[in-house]
Amino acid sequence: MQMRNTVTIGIAALLLASATVANAQGQPQQQQQNVPPQAPVTAPVAPELGLVDLGVRATSTTGDKARYERYSDLKDGAVSQILFGKKTETFSFAARAYNVGYRDQSYVADYNSGRIKVIGLFDSTPLNYFYQAATPWVQAGTSPTATFTLDPSARLAVQSKTPGIVGIPTSAAQLNTPSIYRGLATQFEMQQLRTVGGGGLTYNATPDMNIHLTFASTKKSGTMPWAGAFAFNNANELPLPLDNRSNDVSVGAEWATQKGMVRVGWTGSWFDNKIHDLVWDNPIRATDFSNGLAITNPPCQSGVAMGPYDCSGYSNGNGPAQGRMSMPPDSSMNVVSATGLYKMPAHTSVNATLSFSSMKQNDALIPWTINPVIASPTVYSVFHDLAHLERNTAKAEVRGVNALVNFNSRPNRWVSLNMRYRYNNHDNRTPAFEAVEYVRFDAVPEETGGETEAFDITRKTLDVNATFNIAPYTALRLGYGNDSFDRTGRSFSDMTDDIFRVSIDTMRSQYVTLRGIYTHTIRKGSGFSEDTIVHGGGQPNLRFYDEADSKRNRGTVLVILTPMSGVDLTTSFAKGEDVYNGEGHEFGLLSNDNSSINVGLNIAPKETVAFGVNFGRDKFQSMQKSRNANPLPDVQFNDPARDWTLDNDETVNSFDIYLDLSRAIKNTDISLNYDFSDSDNAFIHGGSRISSLIAAGTFLALPDVTNKWRRVSADVKYFFQPKVGIGLGWWYEKLDVSDFNTIDLTPGTPRIDYLGEISTGYGNRPYKGNTGFVRLLYRF
């Protein structure tokens, strides 16, 4: 029995370990509330050593099927899950296979002989964007340049302003005429796939020392929506092909005794992107604009005719026939680290970590422009620096130093102390790149740029917490934190957060548990540079919320009532407030308030029955202010009559209920779940209205963005013999959403040719999905 329990635990540990190795890639984990639940997972119950779960699945969907599936592959067909574990006197082995043959398949195996531990895995995760996407661009090449072309005769008709032909609608009247590209668009499924293969090895060289090695390789393929533009009224969305891989290796050694531990290691990561740059056709121009006139020096003088380019080509569409942009470059990172732990008397310990990192990329830089009208001796005679790049490759490098020290002590039963200090230095050693002269939207050469800035960051964080057991089963905690940033390239060069915390936890009786937490944060910036904001066209009194002077208050109260064994009632309330009140702060985010309340009830009258219900309400409110004005020297820039405000309010209601019956009915397991959320996001505008603009139809309020999401899952397993059973499962999910940014011709049919854009049609759309399972279960 002990052996079989150990194997069962080993299988559970194996599943956790597989997730740990997969996450070692450092890839961002995609999250979304309306992800369909994974296929029912049934771990082997002791004393069985394995489980074979085979069956069939059928899915029916209306609406946006890709959003229903999102990170899953729910097509009709066979489904499978196999768990296996074995233990002998000399080794243990566990393995798992899930959804064999599908885009969301995964495999993991673990072997442990006591001295050697080996784990291997393969995991595949899709990201489904939109199955009814459409684009008029045709992909003509992938590596190293992803090239997208448009029908040349259609482009020429648009450029020639042929009567009745619309390329990209730029007015409400043109919306009544379909774009010529709508009829040329082809439908495709926009989705990407991430596959991870990896493994790990641990060798126990001595009882006190082990050596470990991990490796993971992550590949991304498929397509994703990607934005490009030739002018403010000529925005394009393309299905960017993906072909990149990340390889990660970690090697380390650890020595440990009862008094302490030392670990040293090295981690390397390499990113390889097969697609270096993107080139795509302009939907409103078939040829590069040129008026044949001579260039003047200085260029673009008011009232002086000049060429060969249009000085307003970045806004009126008189620009290039093609656009080009670079893609994420190949890069590498190497980290060397050391960690130590030492245990001292009086329940005291100290541990520290020190690491040094180096990040590099040296990809080839793309030329200043793809437009041959500008990349010409005529223009170079005035814009000399556009004739060449300052250097041909990036030569980018960042070095980092990270240190962390923890001190924990509990000298007696009444007091405990925890102190933490963290140091992070991000030293950007990339050589400066002069870009005073540059090309705007591949349409207009400019000399209003500057030199690139190396963004250096030094962060120092001190956190101290003291806990006092002031009464039986009651703890009072006082804390202080200081978080300081020294950096370049921002409007505030230095920023400091002073954080004060107090909390109390008490369980004075078996019936009541109470927890209260309050945090007050004061953020203060120094080294303010108004030029950093004004140089980019911003108002002098604009501040950015992530660095502006502010005060933050946060509080949470949690009450748990346990009137009897197996019953608990939980109530929590949280409220937060951010106020931005620094000197000169007039524009940007001014305030942010949020609150949350949850009430939940859990009932477990016996081990075989569990029931729970929870209701929650979250509210979010923010206020920001801006000015709608042209930059200086236009008098609008300083006109307060052009100020406007936006009050963004959102209320989210949620409701969850579950019922689990584990052998409450003979040989039967039943699991039922229902989840619901309802969101209403409002945009309330305020401020003055310019009389001359009211008639033009400006200041139209944005409609609320709303969504209502429901999910039902049911799983029933019946074992008509100790080792053989049948399983039935059902998932139901429905999303109702209204989003003004998603434009359809008819419900569910995207419009790709809306104001100022040719898109793929990707957006937030409603769906309703049902998935059913019938499975045969065999334990062994």
Textual characterization of the structure:
- This protein is mainly β.
- Helices cover 7% and strands 58% of the residues.
- The protein is built from 7 helices and 37 strands.
- It has a 26-stranded antiparallel β-barrel.
- The longest helix has 22 residues, at 2-23.
- It is globular.
Question: Which SSEs are present, and which pair or pack?
Answer:
Layout: H1 2-23, E1 50-63, H2 65-69, E2 77-87, E3 92-98, E4 106-112, E5 116-135, E6 138-141, E7 145-149, H3 152-159, E8 186-206, E9 209-231, E10 234-256, E11 260-273, E12 277-281, H4 313-316, E13 322-326, E14 331-344, E15 348-361, H5 377-380, E16 396-409, E17 415-428, E18 434-435, E19 438-440, E20 444-446, E21 450-451, E22 457-471, E23 474-487, E24 492-509, E25 512-528, H6 530-534, E26 550-564, E27 567-580, E28 588-606, E29 609-627, E30 643-665, E31 668-687, H7 691-694, E32 705-721, E33 724-738, E34 744-746, E35 749-750, E36 757-758, E37 767-779
Parallel strand pairs: 7-12, 10-36
Antiparallel strand pairs: 1-2, 1-37, 2-3, 3-4, 4-5, 5-8, 6-7, 8-9, 9-10, 10-11, 11-14, 12-13, 14-15, 15-16, 16-17, 17-22, 18-21, 19-20, 22-23, 23-24, 24-25, 25-26, 26-27, 27-28, 28-29, 29-30, 30-31, 31-32, 32-33, 33-37, 34-35
- Summed over residues and divided by their number, the pLDDT gives a mean of 91
N-to-C terminal Cα separation, in Å? 14 Å
Helix content: under 10%
Inertia-based shape: globular
Number of helices: 7
Q: Largest beta sheet, briefly?
A: 26 strands, antiparallel, barrel
Low-confidence stretches: 1-48
Structural class: mainly beta
Please state roughly what percent of the residues sit in beta strands, choosing from under 5%, 5-15%, 15-25%, 25-35%, 35-45% or over 45%.
over 45%
* Radius of gyration over all CA atoms, rounded: 31 Å
Strand count: 37
